[in-house]
Amino acid sequence: xxxxxxxxxxxxxxxxxxxxxxxxxxxxxxxxxxxxxxxxxxxxxxxxxxxxxxxxxxxxxxxxxxxxxxxxxxxxxxxxxxxxxxxxxxxxxxxxxxxxxxxxxxxxxxxxxxxxxxxxxxxxxxxxxxxxxxxxxxxxxxxxxxxxxxxxxxxxxxxxxxxxxxxxxxxxxxxxxxxxxxxxxxxxxxxxxxxxxxxxxxxxxxxxxxxxxxxxxxxxxxxxxxxxxxxxxxxxxxxxxxxxxxxxxxxxxxxxxxxxxxxxxxxxxxxxxxxxxxxxxxxxxxxxxxxxxxx
Length: 295
Fold this sequence. Notes:
- The chain contains eleven helices and nine strands.
- By secondary structure, it is of the alpha/beta class.
- A hairpin with a 2-residue loop joins strand 5 (222-230) and strand 6.
């Protein structure tokens, strides 16, 4: 099983093997400008399909946590273990204490604990920029032994071959070269602009399309996870046809929300394949659970 030290809403961990079927067998450097929990980078590293990695996210606290996971796994594991034990018997009060402390100091171990305990593992901030998600009182977070295993294994996968930055994604794209492969999973379009602000950086659809066109002009291969649907309900704005992308629908399983409402509906996520990646033959053998849709 792939290690996943950072619990993260919207992670591609479950469908990473399917996405990998559409990527090159070997990549010089794998770049994630919207890294989040870096589920795809972990999957690529676990299969040794890239020599180097560049993990970027505009969320500084998240990238600070990544730096701790890769460079100081034992220290981070010990800190998480101490907090997990200390919470027992007073879980809600302890969560509130750690949340207040994180909003003051931005310590990576505190952030990891909050993500392990909060509702839906969702990063949410209030208008003042403070983390304000609440705990899921049904669970205490991953047990220390399991979390330490995840952290240690992930550190081994990326140690001495990962670059970490907390830049705006456009700066990352400008520095990429033809030797790179870029995988992008931008903030989910359905949640931007809400009051709770799950994502700190602003993200603009039209600007993103301009950036993709520039990558095409520079012949840099990339793939983008973007829009999708559940049943007949479509979410997100699709990427435009003028970019010459191939859109692949990937089944992400049954919708939890629909199941709670008594409906049985499958969720599909779109993967867009760039012309440079198409030239590498990425669309020749789609997985059985995907559907190719040519724009």
